[in-house]
Structure formats: C-alpha cells, structure tokens
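HUMAN: Mind making up another protein with tokenized structure?

ASSISTANT:
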Amino acid sequence: MNTVKPESIALFCLTPGGVVLAKRLAAMLPVTCFTSEKLLEEGFIPFENGFANTAREAFTNYSALIFIGATGIAVRVLAPLVNDKFCDPAVVVIDERAQHVISLLSGHAGGANALARYLAGMLGADPVITTATDVNDMAALDTLAFQLNARMSDFRSAVKIVNQMLVSNKRVGLWWDDELTQDVSHCDRRGFITVTDLNQLPELDALVCITLRTNLPELPVPHWKLVPQRVVAGIGCRRDTPFPLLAALLARQLEAQQLDPLALKAIGSITLKKDEQGLIQLASCCRVPFETFTADALREHEHRFPASSFVRKTVGTGSVSGPAAWLLSHGQLLGETLREQGVTITLGVSH
C-alpha cells in the first residue's frame, strides 16, 4: 500500500515552461524537483544517467511522482515498472500551462486521485480523474480501507466485486462497530447504504462490515469484513523465546478479547529486545511494525502495573508489556495481561 506523503513527492520537468511551473509548485508544497543539466536552477537536482533512469529510480523510492509534460512520455518511461495498483506509487501528469492535472496511476491506493485534486485546486486547473467510482460520485472500497488503515481477507477480490457493485447501482450496505463511529465519520461513504443494526437489515445486495471483532452474526447477504488496524500488543519475554510460542500466546490473547488478528497495528517491547528473533519474526508474520522503548520510557509507567524485581534487575524496569502497550495505545488498554511460560502480553487499542 502506498500513502502519498508530501515530503516524498518527486517532480520531473523537461522544458523551460515545466521548470517555471515546477518552481511554482515547489513554493506551495515540499517536492524534490528533477530536470536536465541545461535547465538546472537552484534547488533542482540534475537527472542521473538521463531522465528515464532517474524517473525509474524514483518510482521505487518515492510515494508519488509528478510529471510536467506529455502523458505519453510518462507512460513510456514507467510502463516496464507498473506492477500492482496496491503497491505502485501515485503518478500525476500536469501540462506545462497548468490547465489539466491527470491522475495517471494508483488513483485510489496510491492516492493519485487525491493528489491530482489537491494540485488542481492549488493551480486553478481541471483535475482529470477516470476511475469509475469517482466519475460516478461514489466512494470505493479500497479508498475506504486506506482511509481507515484497514485490512481484509482476499482484499483484491473484494475490491473488484464491491466497487463493481457500487458503479452498477447495487445496494451495498455499510455497518460499523459503535467504537469506530468517529473514525468512519471522516471517510468517504458515497454510494454505500448505512446500516445501523445487523439484526434488521434493509434490502441489500451485499454488505461491508467495519469491525475489530473476530466473529459476526450470520448474515443473509454476501458480506465482507473490513478490519481497521487499531490493536497494539506490548510483549515481554525471556531471551530466545521461540516464535511459535509467541505466536500461539498472542493469538490466544486476541481471541480472549474477541479481536480479529487483522486488527493488530503494532507490537512493542523494550529496546533490549530489538534483536529478539522471535519478536521480529512475530511482527513480520503479522505484517506490523516492531517498536521498542527504552527502559527509562517504560519505567515512567511502571507504577501502573504489577512489577517484578527480577525483571527490574535484568532489564532496568519492573514491567515491560504493560508500559509498552500503554505507550503504543496512549493509555487505552484492553483486558488483563497474559502471563505464561516467561511471556507477558498486554493489549491496547489506538484510534
């Protein structure tokens, strides 16, 4: 998944008019501007081994690319690299007179549609958006997922089916857990039919449920579960604790709270565990970051949790999992701490 970040936008210009427009854009948002040696000005970076090579390097190193010039040039340069709409960066093309801003690649997942609209607004240009949901003034399941930082099983298939249903005027419902109301309220839900009670569904062709829950009640229509990543896990363990044990205990702790494993957002521990292979493998398997905190940072919250003099003597703080979960969740903890076989796991939820 690509999320457009202003600080990781590469801009390419090939003509004097393009340089003028690039300088205008650079004054409005942080971009890295590339051009040829003969057009080089202060603040610009020269192409390295030519325009095509520089653009292709940027394709793998930036969240978004802006080309000032002909659409065909961008297409020919990037065509060999285009791979996956959920991973490719956003690509936007602007004519050098700033009349049109074209969302060329990764409109939803990469954020090219949003970037094109933003740039068009700044330039007083026309945004050119061609994705079916957008031109029909509807939301899209993949956009909703990225706005919520959510995951789902068989995501690609679900996106294809649900978006096609939306643009075909099918009745697609949208339901969410009460605790996610604030998150969902900021999302684009055009085209979806709001559902407030899973036990009393309106007439629907399909349903998308936004939830952290493991299980949903039986539903009479095709449905998909969209799971926002909100759950964090603070973990303390003995040195060389095996990955299978950590994975099994984490799964049990999530199940005890009836939480879908896809809801996991991050795993945290003490800095001394930054090289702990079982924890590193666990985070990799769950596809979440592994964050560590210093003993001093954890010790500030040690008083909130049962402390062990042995742990304090060993790592410098009397508790690891609780303070780590507290820091990751800003104090929003879930359930009791699991303590078993030298492992402690504390869950929290971060909105």
Summary: The domain at 139-226 is CATH 3.40.1390 (Udp-n-acetylmuramoylalanyl-d-glutamate--2,6- Diaminopimelate Ligase; Chain: A, domain 1). The two ends are 20 Å apart (CA to CA). The longest strand covers residues 333-340.
